[in-house]
Amino acid sequence: MTIMNLPTRATLASLSLILLMGTTVSAGVVALSPHRAVYDLTLKSASDRSGVKDLNGRMVLEMTGSVCDGWSVNFRLVNDFQLPRGRSRLVDSRSTSWEAGDGSSMSYLEREFIDNRPHQVTRLRVSMKDGKVRQKQPKEVVFDLPANAIFPVTHQKRLIEKAQKGELRDKSIVYDGADRDNIYQAITFIGKKRSGEKQAAGLKGQGAAALLNGTKFWPVTVSYYTLKDKDDQDTPNQQISFQMYENGIAGDLTIDYGDFAMSGKLVRLEQLPQGKCEK
What is the pTM of this model? Predict the structure, then answer.
């Protein structure tokens, strides 16, 4: 993969799956906690073929809602890539998604800008009742989801539940709309639970200390394979390693695309108001 054909939608697909975490667990039930998380991005490594000399970026996720009203997620990823011969490329992807509290339906809208110019719009709706994805933009298409596919919030609940039970591995088919007609098989490895001490030190944001200090976490690695190519893939499309706190917050992370990798440092975390719901 090189920067000139970097699939920014796939970037969103993998990152939004991970960053939808903000959960708390009580009596075996995963209850989502509205929050805003900000990560600073830097280049960790790059091969010559990647065409990436350096990068600086930021990603921001804001999650609100409830089981009753569904979950709304605003996600923005901005990367300034430094290329050979002094060139640069600014990639700015902004998405808004909504997922029903029971995981039965989802809508997704993404606007992509390259060098501050509008590049592409993706808009679609999905229903698990008929298993259809109905894409409106960039062109109208309808296609089927596998019967066992799940949406991002459902996937995150599954990972938290398995970690709490001491399970070390998960394999799920996940669709979030960010990569349009690409459906991913996500293979997750969960490490041993660790204790967290003063994890919010240096973090900005109201509620950061309450969310992280003294909270236990697991080291987690998630590898994403395009479902239609998974039998022929030796390496994943993307691999993400991060700290998964028991309340669901994702800590510092590494995103590896094979030819280059970037580090994400959690720099701000805010607890948002909980939506009212009697379920």
Answer: 0.86
